[in-house]
Amino acid sequence: MKTNRLFITVMMAAIFSCGNMLAQNAQTPSQKKKLTPEQRQEMQINRMQKSLMLDDETAAKFAPLYKEYLEALKACRTEMKQEKPQQRKAERTDAEIKKQLEERLAKQKKVVETKQTYLAKFEKILNARQLEKLFAAPRHNKHMQAGPCAPQCNKKPMRGNGCPLQHQPGECCPR
């Protein structure tokens, strides 16, 4: 009985004394390292170069062109964000709605044209598989995206291809 009490006391002392060593310093938002937009862009370029597995010569050609491409896309997207409707949806007239739709489609068309322009430039230095990776839709929120069955399948993703049922990529769920 005494050995049990002694053992428990020693264990409790060890746990309490080691507790401080395991505690982590909580970082406040001001202590976290904040990157400038240029640093973020540089990291994105490096990440894409690694993803495409470029050699040094190709990487030297790729980096400035990719940076130019990112800046062109950023310019297109800032134009899209600038003009947001100030009125409530119920207060707009049919003509205003139609005008806003046409403006939005024109801006989206500009983004597509920019991508097509840079596709022609990237074709000179990258192969088809690398182009596919480069122009694939960015997946910032992977856990929010459904997968190949997205339009037909309303079920929660459970497996690797985004569908709760085991399908081959490209196949869709029955409705």
UniProtKB/TrEMBL annotation:
Q: Which UniProt keywords apply?
A: Signal
Lineage top rank: taxon = Bacteria
| Range of residues in the leader sequence | 1-23
- Identify this protein by name: DUF4890 domain-containing protein
Q: What organism does the record attribute this protein to?
A: Phocaeicola coprophilus
